[in-house]
Amino acid sequence: MSGAHLRANANTLATTADRPRPLGPSPLRKVHTDNLVTLDSQVVAATDPTIEIPLAILDVVQVVINGRKAACSWYAAYTARQVSEAVKHIEKSNGRHQYFVDVLQQVLDILKKEAKRRRPKRKKKFDMATAINELSNLYLHLEVEEPEKSCETHAHSRTHCDCLVRIWRSSIKTAHAHTDLSRRIRTAIHASWRTPRAASVCIQCSFLLPCCAWTCTISWMEI
């Protein structure tokens, strides 16, 4: 190759190197299943800086695990019903899939535990009294009634109740008496109606009912 060609190639390489490279996604790297738990532990242990654990990602992983578990269960039931040699490769594939699901579950458990640990602790609203002095302070504002005072109060309450019972019984007797009196008056009036009269008769009677006192005047004309 001549010197002119070498200079041309060098210029081309220099020009290409000076060009800005387009920004794009970094090349994908394959991660083995056995390394997932190790990488997960490194994410949790990172402190400078701390790697955030989004709860949305945990929810997505949980959904993925649930779907893959359902698929593994379906294929396990399918191969259990088959007796041919053709399903052996399905059993092997399903076994590898089940192992992958178990590793995902381990990763999710580690991340969920760390996310829960990072969650800010809530302040307790009520402090439980555990010490002896705290338990004794619970009774500082209670009023204790002396036994003698209690007996006097009980006797006074009982006397008051007995008085109320006597008043109630007396009221019942009075009501029965008034009811009987009014019944006798009505009976006498009804009997007088049956007696022929040729003139106007005016009967005025006064009696007391349990709730009010009133006067009744009855007039009628019988031939």
Keywords summarizing the entry:
6 helices; 223 residues; disordered C terminus; mainly alpha; two-stranded antiparallel sheet
Provide a concise account of the structure shown:
With 223 residues, this protein is mainly alpha-helical. It has helices spanning 3-18, 36-45, 55-81, 88-118, 132-137, 147-193, and strands spanning 200-208, 213-221.
What percentage of the residues does DSSP assign to strands (E)?
5-15%
Q: Structural class per helix/strand content?
A: mainly alpha
Q: So how many helices?
A: 6
What share of residues is helical? 55-70%
Radius of gyration: 52 Å
Largest sheet: 2 strands, antiparallel
Q: Which strands sit side by side, in order, in the main sheet?
A: 1-2
Number of strands: 2
Uncertain spans, ≥5 residues at pLDDT below 50?
196-223
Order of helices and strands: HHHHHHEE
Mean pLDDT rating: 71
How far the N terminus sits from the C terminus, by CA atoms, comes to 163 Å
**What's the overall geometry?**
elongated
Summarize the topology:
Blueprint: H1 3-18, H2 36-45, H3 55-81, H4 88-118, H5 132-137, H6 147-193, E1 200-208, E2 213-221
Antiparallel strand pairs: 1-2
Helix pairs in contact: 2-4, 3-4
Region (Disordered): 10-30
Domain DUF6604: 8-156
Protein name: DUF6604 domain-containing protein
